[in-house]
Protein 1
Amino acid sequence: MGQAELQNLIPLGAVLHHSLSQPKALELGAGVRLRQGRLHEVSGASADMFAIQTAAAQDNPILWMGLHRDIVTLNPSGLQAYLKVEDLILVEAVSRGELLWAADQALRAAGGFCVIIDMPDTLSLKESRRLQLAAEQGGGIGLLLLRGPASTSAAQTRWECQPRCAEQPSWDWACLKGKNGEAGRWRMTEQLRDRKGGASAKDTLHLAAAASA
Amino acid sequence: MPRILSIWLPQLPLDRLARHGDPRLAGAFAVTAEERNAWRVMHANRAALKAGVKPGQALADARAICPDLLTEPSDTVREELLLRALWRWADCLSPRVSLDPPDGLLLDISGCSHLFGGEREMGGESLTRLSDLQIEARIGIADTKGGAQALARFGADALNVAEPGELRAALADLPIAALALPDNLISELARAGLSTVAHLQDQKSAELARRFGLHLTQTIDTALGRTPDPVTPKAADPVYAARMTLPEPIGFLEDLEAVLERLARQICGWLEQDQSGARRFQLTVRCVDTGDHHLGIGFARPCTDPAAVLRQFSHPLSELEIEYGADWFRLCAEHIEPIRLKQTSFGEEAKRADDRLILIETLGNRIGFDHVRVFQAKDSHVPEHEFEQAEAVQAAPRWVQAPRERPIRLFTPPEYVQVETPGRPPKAFKWRRMDFSSETAHGPERITPRWFRDEDLRTRDYWKVQTRQGRRLWLLNYPGEETEDWYVAGEFP
C-alpha cells in the first residue's frame, strides 16, 4: 500500500469516528501521519527513533517516562540533533503501576503534551483503553514503546520500526495496525542538510520516503 | 549610648517541665545531656542541688550521691521553641529583641525604660512577669551587649544594673568567665594570674593581644563599648496557618474537601495580600481515634490558588483512612516566597509554561519531585559526564549543544560483548544474546579520562559500527590492555 492511498484513507476514518470534528494529525514527513489525542504503539529495535521523530514534529513539551533502567540510558547529547532538549522532561517511575498512573496524568493534562512511555512489558486491553481515553481528553499524543510482545490493545496504530544496514542511517517503518485503516510501509533515510547551518534542531534531519519497500 | 537588657534563663529546661506540671520536679530532679562521651547533669533543681548534685557532674556520680535522683534527657528542640515563644513575648518590653541562644534574650531598651518608670522598675517588672510564667530569670542592664550578658550571668542579684558610663566599674569585680571567652583562653589567663575583669582592665591591650591573641582584646573592647555591637532584632516570620475545630467528627471525602477549601481560601487570601505564595502546604488531620495525620504537598512555583491546593491534596486525602472521623484540621503554608505578578491571560507561551508546571507538580507530588527531571549540560569531554539530570521543579531547562556526535542511548557501565570473529572492531559478536556482524565502522575516537578525577583511568577507543543486522552500535575498547575486551557503550538511532 502506498502513501497516496494512506492519505486518502485518513479523512475517511476520521469521518467514521468523529462525525463533525476534523482530528488533528501530526505530519512526520513523507505522508506518515499520526493522529493527535490518540495512543500509538511502537515496537522494534528503533522504536526510539520513531518516538523522537514524532516528538520533534510537534512543539509541546515532551515527557519521556519509564523505569529507571530505561530512563537512565537516554543521552541528551545524542538527542539534541533531533529535538529540543529543553522541552524534554524525564519521569522515572518506581513500578509499573506508578508508570501507568504517571502516563495517565500526563496524557490527561491540559497542554497537549507528547508523552513517550517506555513500557517494560505489554499492556492489557483495559490499561491501553484507559490511556487512550486519557489521550483523547488531553489532546496530546501518546507513544507507547513496547519492549515485550504486542497484544490486543486500544491504541490507534501499531508501528514496527527496524534500522536498516545502509550507507546513510535509514529505517523501515511499517504500520501493522490502524483503527482507521492506516497501513503501509515506509523506508526513511536520514538526509543531513547543512549540519553546521542548521540552527534549528529539527532542520538537521530530513526524512524521505521511498515507495512501499 | 544604647541601653541593653539581657535576660538569662538559667533553668530553661527545668522551667519547661515545670510549666507542664511534671510531678517529678517535687523531688530531686535533673536534666541530663550527653557530653564528652558521658551522660552529665546539665540542670538540677533545688532539691537535687541540696543533696549535692552539681551541674556538669557525670550522671553516675550524681546517682551515687543522690540515689533518689530522677532525670530526663534534655530536648533541645522543645527548649528552643520555648525560647522563641519568650522571644515573641518580649515584644511587650521592647520592639528590638534578639535571640541569645541557647538560654537568653537580648533587648535594646534605649528609650523604652521610661514607659515602665525607669530601668530598675523595668527589670523588676520583667522578672515579675517571667515568674508569672513560671520562668526563672536573671537580668543585667548595661551599655553594651557583652556587659549586660556578663551582669545577668555573673551579677550578685537577680537584677543588676550598670548605670550609663559606669560599666567599667560594674564589671571590675566579675570573674573573667563573664566575658564569654573560649574555655582554653580562660584557663590560659588563669595560669597567668588574671582571674577578674579588673585584672584585665589594668593590662595594656597591646601586651594582652601579643600574648593571648586579638580575640581577647576585641572581646574586651566590645564588652566595654569601645567598638559598636548592636542588637540585631529579628522579626518573627508571619505564620500562614489556619485551623478548624468541628463540634462533631466528619469522615466523608466531600466534607473533608469542604473544610480544606475554607482553610485554603483563608490562607491564600492572606498570602495574596502579602504578595507572596507558598511552595509547600501541610495539612494536619486529627482523627478522633488514631491521632494526627500529616499530609503534605509541594508546588513548582509559589502558589496562592485555593483550587490548586485542593487539586493537589485530593490524592493524599483520598488515601487517608478515617474510620471514626476527624474533628480538628490545620492547614499551614510553608516555604513562603514573594510572587511577581504576571499577566497570564494573554499569550500562548505563558499558558504553556503554566501547563508544564502544573503537570510537574501533579507528577512530583505523587512519585516524588526527585523523579521528575530535566537534562542539564555539563562541561566535559567524557560522554557520560556531558550532562546531568536536575529536578524539574528547581531548574529551568537549559541546554548547551554538545559539540560531538553521540549515540541517543548511552550504557553506563558499557555492556560486555562476546567476540565471535576478532578484528578491530570485531567482525562478528554477540550482544544481549543477539548475533551481529559489522558492515562498516568509523573510528576510533580516542578519549582519555580526566586524570584529575577519581574515575576509570583507562584510555578508551570508541567505534561507530554499522551492523549488517541494521542496528548502529557504539563499540568501546580499552587499548593497551592485556585482553582485547569489547563493550557496547551506546546505540545510535
Protein 2
Amino acid sequence: MNNSNPKRFGRRGFLASGLGIAGGLSLSAPAARAGALRLLGGRRRAGERTLVVIQMNGGNDGLSTLVPYGDDEYHRLRKATRIATGDLHKIDDHVGLHPSMSKLARRYDGGELGIIQGVGYPGPTLSHFKAREIWHTADLRGRAAGNGWLGKLCGDVWPDEALPELSVHIGPDVPYSLHSSTHAPVVFNTPDSYRWLGERGAETALNEGGEKGKGSVLERLRNVMSDAQDSSGRILNAIRKYETDVEYTNHKTSQSLLTAAALIHSGLGSRVISVTTGGFDTHAYQKGDHGDALKALDDGVDSFLRDVGRCEAGKDTLVLAFSEFGRRAKENGSGGTDHGKAGIMFVAGTPVEGGLYGKYPSLIDLDNRDLRFNVDFRNAYATAVQWMGGDVEPVLGKDYAPVSYLS
Amino acid sequence: MHLIKISLLLGSTLMVPGQPPALGGQDSHIAREERVAGDQVQSGIPWNRRTVEHLYNRAAFGARRATISRALQGTPEAAVDQLLKGGRAVEPPHYSQGTVEDTKISGKLSREEKRRRRALRSRENRQAMEGYTNWWLERMVAHDDPLRDRMALFWHGLFATQYGMVKRSFDMIEQHQLIRENATESYAVLLHGIARDPAMLLFLDNQKNKKGNPNENLARELMELFSLGVGNYTEEDVKEVARALTGTSRDKIGNYKFVKKDHDSGRKTILGETGRFSTEDVVDILLRQTACARYIAGRIITYFEGVEPDELRLVEYAAFLQRKNYELQPFLRKLLLDPRFYREEVLESRVLGPVEYLVGSSRRLGIKVDGDFLRAASAELGQKLFEPPSVKGWDHGEAWINTGSLLARGNTIGLMIGTVDLEETFRSKKDRRSALDEPSTRRGTEGERVVEEELIEMDSEAADESTMELDIEEVPMEDETMGEVMMGEVAWEPELPKDELPKEISRLVNALGKDYQPVLNLSYRLNRRKIEGDERIVAVMLDDLLAIQVPGDTRSRLLEHFRLVREQAGIEESEFIQDPRAELILRQLAHLILSLPEAQLG
C-alpha cells in the first residue's frame, strides 16, 4: 500500500473534512452542524489518549501462553498440551512465550510489552458469562452494579461529550464493559456494512425527528438512529481514506485492529475502542487451536502497534488484553484444558514499561486444582483509568491501587 | 416414535403440584370453571384498530389488514379465545437420534478415523438443527399457531439451552418439542419436563451430579432462573436440591435415565420441607412456593407488556396462576383481556426482538422468505435460535438496539426485498449509476395482468376454503402474492468476487440463495385497492408495514421524501401507480419504512 502521502488530520483539518463527508452523504444540514458541534466539544480536554481493550474470548490458558518451562510441575501437569521448551521465546530462566507469539516476544525484548501474571479476583466463577460480567463491570455483582467500567470511564472523563463514536466496539457482540446510560458506544462489525444500504439520499428521511416524546422509547431509538447516521459516514470515510503500508493479515482480529488504527489516525475522537478475539475456550485439541488464537492476537497487535506508531495520537495509545479466566492447572483427558481461575493480561504500546508484573502463580499451592491470583484485575484497570485521566473510585467502585506498568 | 416417547414422558410427570396454599373462599368456585375460561371477563377494553393491532403484536406476530377488520367485527373475547385455541395442527418435522457409535468398534478405530467420524456426526447434527430452526421460523411466518410460537419463544429464552454446548440435535429438538407442545398449556408440566430434560441435564452438567460428588449447576439455575428468581432460596437450599437431583441423567443416545446408584436417597431439607426427596419432589416443592408463581407471572407479564407489573398486579396474577395450578390458558386469557394490558404506557412501546422483527416484517410485506434466510438474519441481528448467549437467555427490550444492529435491521429488509444494490454499494466506485435511471424491474403487459387477476381471484377462493379451520388469520400470504410474481433486481452478479462483500452481508446473500428474486408486487397491491395520491400511498404503506401508528412528524417527513422522489423521476401524482418505475420506488419506500426507529416497536 501507498504511504507516500500519509493522512494526518489535526482537529482543524478533520473538522473541515468532516463537514465535507457529511455533505457527500446528503446528511441534512442540522445533522452536519450537530456533528461539528460535537467535535468542538471533544476538543476541550487535553492529553487525548486512546485505550484499546482486547477481549480474548473463551478463557485463555495462561500456562500455555507464558509457559513456566523452568517449573518441573508444569511438565507433570501438562502432557498433550505441553509446549516443548526449545520452541519457546524465553523471557528468563523460568518462563517463555508461546512459539506463536514471536512478534510480541520481540516487542517484549524491546520493552513495549507488559505481561501481568496471576491476574484474577476473589471468589472466581468458572462460567464464561458471569466471569465476563465481572470483568466488564469491575464488580463481583456483575450487571447489578450498573454501567460497564469503560462506560463509566467515558462518563467520568468526558461527562459532556456527545460524540457517538467516543467509545466504539468493532465486532458482533458488544461487551457489557461499554454499557452506559449516558455514553452508549457505537457498534459495528465491519465499517463497510456500517451504513444504511438503501436508496442514496433517502437516509435523511429516517430520522430528523421534531416532536419526540420526552424520555420515551421512541425518543431513545431515534437517538440511536441519529448516532448511527452521524457516525457511520465519518467512520466509513475515515476507513476508506486510510492508507497504511503496514501489513495486516486477513484474520478478523487483525482486520478489526486495522479499523481501530484507522480510527485513531483519522482523529475522529474515539477514545475507547473495544475488539474481541476468539478461540481460547480450548477444552480439546488445544495445541493447534490455542496456537492459532495466540497467533491471531500476535499478528493483529503487532501490526496495530507498528501502524499507530506512525502518528502522535497513535503513540498515545494503550492496549490492554484480557480473558475472562485462565484454565485449570492440570490438562483434561481430551488434549485440552477446562475452565480455571487466575490468568494473564497483556499491556502494550508506547506508554508501557515492558516487563513482567505480578508473580507467576504456584503450580503446587492450588485453589481447588486452579491457579491462585495475586493481582486483582481491577488494580491493573486502575492504571489505565488514571492514564486516561479518570478517577479510579467512580469508575471501578473502589480506590484500587494501580499496577505500575507505565513508563 | 419420538412423539410417543414425549407423551409417555409427560404422562409420568403430569402431576399437579399438591396442596396449593389456601387462597380464600374462591378456590372451589374456580375449580368448577371450564379450562379455558378465566375469571370473570373484564370489560372496559377500548376495541379499536390500535388495540386490535396491539393484541396481535404481542400475542401473535402482528396483524395484517384482514385480521384487523375481522377482529373489529367481533369482541376482544372472541379474538383472544381464537388465539388461545390456536390454529392448524402442524405436522412436526421428522428428526432422529442420528448415528450412534458402537463403542465396541469405535474403541479400535484409528485416531484419524475417529476424527473423521466425529466431524461427520457434527455436520449431521448441525444440519438437523438448522433444518429444525427453519421449520420453527417458517411456522411463525405461516402463523399456524402464533400464540403458541410466541410462548415457545418465551420459554426458549427462559429455559435457555445452547446447542453449542449440548451438541446433540436430537436432544435439543426433543426439548423444543416439549416446550412448544406445552407452551400455552401448563408451566407445571414444563418445569417437570425441563428438570429431567436430556438436553438441559447435559447443558447444566447434571450427569456429573452424583451422590457424594455433587454438581450444583442445575440445582442453582432451576431455582434462580427457571422457577423462583434470585433471593428466594438459600445456598443451603442449592446444596440440598443438588443432592435430590443426583442420579437424574441421560443415556448415551439422549433418553432420560435415572441412575439409582448415583442418587443420594438420604433426607434433605428444601425450602423448609424435609424428606427423601427426588427430582419430582423438588419440582413439586418449587411449584408450591408463592415466589415461583410470582416469578413466572412477572416474567410472562413483562414479556407481553414490555414493562414490569406493579406489586398489586403481580400479587393478583401470581395468586391466580397458583390457584389454577399453573395452567397457562386461563392466565393468558386473563392477561390478554385485562384493560391494563391495553393501557397507554404499554401500547406501541415494546422493542421487538430480532425474530419478532423479521417474522413480523416479512408477514406485513407479504413476502415469502424461507427459513434459511430468517435463521441467518436473526442470528446476524443478535438472536441466534438455540444459541442463547447464556443460561439467562436473551436480554430483551432496548438491549437489542445499538447503532450497528439498528442499521443492520433495515439492511436485512433491503436485502430481502431487493432494494440493496450490492454491485453499486460494494464494488469500487467506478461505473456508478443511479438506480432510478435504469429501473431493473420488469412488468408484464396489460394483457398478462388481466389473466393474473383472474388467477388471483380463483386462488383466493381456494385458499379461503382450505383455511376454514384456521379461522384465526386471514388467508395465508400466498393469497396476496400468488400469481403476481414480479422480478426484483438480480440480487447478485457473479462477476463481483464475493470476498468484496462484508462477511455479515455475504452470509445473508448466501442464505437468500444465488438466484433469489423477491416475490412481491407492491404497486399491484395498491392499484388493486385503488390507493392513489402521495398522501394516501404513504399512509397506507405506513399502516400496512408497521406494527404501530407513527407520529405525525414521521408521516410528513416520509411524505415529503416520497413526493420529492416522484417529482425527481418526473412522474405525475395521478399517474404514479401506472408508471413502470412505481414498483422500485415503492420498494424503496418499504425499505425506508422498515428501517425507521418506529419499525422496531410493536
